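Researcher: Please predict.
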Amino acid sequence: MATKKQERALDIVSRLKQMYPKAKCTLDFTNPFELLIATMLSAQSTDVRVNVVTKSLFRKYPNPQAFAAARQPEMEHDVRQTGFFRNKARAVIAASKSIVEKHGGEVPRTMEELTALPGVGRKTANVVLGNAFNTAVGIVVDTHVTRVSGRLGLTSNVDAVKIEQDLMKLIPKKEWTVFSHRLIQHGRQICIARKPKCRECRLNELCPSAEEPAE
């Protein structure tokens, strides 16, 4: 029998589905490797900016072998606009080398193998597994998911791994991938960081953090 918290979570899932029926990954990619690289570059950056960078990046380096053979200074220049470009350049080259040398040039399909790649954490692995391979192993927890799930009272944790564990207990597995997309879209449009638009929010009556009553 579902608890009140689980029932409220299912209500939130249902409302988000109505609010954002077309929510999806906003990074541009044509294959799992491109999504992996784009997600690595998206840390501390915006998907819009990453999409601008990867448009030319994927033309210049069309496959893992090309990324693996890239020179660090040149890659730094190519990904500079995404911020933290030295670390990101080092990570994408190292991850690409590992994919070429250990996985035959194919992006691995398990959480364990993905997180063993240099510079790839659980969040990035979840993005790739859920969106490139349609395999729900977990829930993507980024800054928006952290903020919104906390405000909605779905978790009291601040650590991404613990937040993910809390959400996985409340959200049906078939919804895991798209739930994060919807929560992210809600975080960008309504439940923004500095001043959430509580008066416009259709989750208002379900939200313990609502600052204004729904009209």
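Model: The radius of gyration is 18 Å.
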